[in-house]
Amino acid sequence: MPIADIIIYLFLLTGATLSYTKNKLTLTGAITGALVGLFIYKGAGYSGLVMLAMFFIAGSWATGWQINKKTAIGAAEENKGRRTAGQVLANGGVAALLGAATRLFPENTVVIKLMIAGSFAAATADTLSSELGMVYGRRFFNILTFKKDQRGLDGVVSLEGTLVGLVGAALIALVYTLFLGWSISFFWIIIAGFAGNLADSILGASLERKGWIGNNVVNFLNTAVGAGVCWVVINF
User: Which of 14, 113, 198, 221 is 20 to 30 Å apart from 227, CA to CA?
Assistant: First the structure.
């Protein structure tokens, strides 16, 4: 076994352990996170792992930021922000599946890596937009009706939150660029993140509010949209 792989496996094990002991993930969430990281590493290499780490670090920080204020308005994450296995799969499942796909379709590895970036851009944009928008947003409105609405509710957005989401997508685009070189893909990834975040809000304001789907399904579809946008722009 290559020494590089051994180091990565130890890194994933250490990350899962710390995430659990630092109350960032539940036990099953930590185990699932390690497996997701393994699939992503096998498919996208170091760039995929760093994108995963960027999403996790930025998302965990944003979730915990001003937690008392979020709790006061009833919008704080359950379990004090500790992510479950379901939440891990909702945000990283698409990237993990794409990582596995590179083994089946190695000739499409370049496209799949871009799609992985798009999925993480969408996940990061959504998390930062939601968590920080609740804190710093000034005016909140329903994404479907554009009427004023209560912050923290599904499908409610703010200008400040949307802009923060774009910054989150740009962070993933920057990681992708640092590993794979500068190209127009930098902007495609940001657009993918914005599109996924927009889809998340639309689904939240419609299907999720009606109780037809849960938040994990919404987040999974959000990342699928981000990946799909990257597939479209690179193929058409």
Answer: 14
